[in-house]
Amino acid sequence: MDIGTLRGIGTFVVFVAFIGVVLWAYSSKRKSSFDEAANLPFADEPPKSAKRDEQDSRSNKE
């Protein structure tokens, strides 16, 4: 086996792995998990009304 054959096999393995990741990422079964993960940065924010009430209470104390 020469280096060209090994490189060819390596390229094929990486290509198959890439296709597997693409199919996994665009699978309709994963959509709900990805949508939930996309909204995680916004999960810790309090509602806008709570923020406004907090600002009002701070301004009343001064």
TrEMBL record:
It holds the Pfam family FixQ. Keywords: Membrane, Transmembrane, Transmembrane helix. It comes from the Bacteria. It comes from Metapseudomonas boanensis. Residues 37-62 are annotated as: Disordered. The chain crosses the membrane at residues 6-26. CDD domains: cbb3_Oxidase_CcoQ (cd01324). Residues 45-62 have a biased composition (Basic and acidic residues). This is Cbb3-type cytochrome c oxidase subunit 3.
